[in-house]
Design brief:
- There is one protein chain.
- By secondary structure, this protein is α+β, with helices and mostly antiparallel strands.
- Helices cover 59% and strands 13% of the residues.
- A 3-stranded mixed beta sheet has the order 3-4-5. A two-stranded antiparallel ribbon has the order 1-2.
- Helix 1 runs parallel beside helix 6 and helix 3 runs antiparallel to helix 6.
- The radius of gyration is 18 Å and the shape is globular.
Length: 192
Amino acid sequence: MSVSGFAGKRPPSGPCTLKIRLKMLIKKTTQILNELQDLLDSLSPEDYSRQVMVLSNATIGQHVRHILEFFECLIQSRHTGVLNYDKRKRDLAIETCPEAAKNALQNILKEIRQDNFDLTLEQQYLDNDNEVIALSSNYYREIMYNIEHAVHHQALIRIGVKSLQPELMLPKAFGVADSTIQYRNQVFSNSN
């Protein structure tokens, strides 16, 4: 069954169901951002900005910045109606200073709750750098994308944290997609 409870069917629309969907999306986004907040509270600034060999010498801070800046791009798209994730700031303070990351995270939590709106998603690829690909999207769809994107980077962050601080316990679901958790639970319940 899908998250909205309408597997294989087009979910009903209307103000009530849109509010329910937004509530579900905000709840999941808040969960992910709170997990990142807890991580930031647990890491020293040195470990946050330390290159990690198993992450191809990327840092945990770089992955956190990447997650946060995608959310920031989405929130800012309400002003222009255009969303291009490649035009993010790449703010070195967020990537090197846990306190700056916490501030950015708190701003996202304050701004994320918005009514749905249409937007144009833009992308350019290196093999054709003069042409912009533009597709229709909307705010709620892009929150869903950001949730999945964040979980993917949390999985990488988990690997980095275990390399730097093996004793640090992360939540069981940190960096694991909900569908994977559901599948594992199903397999576990079928094996008993």
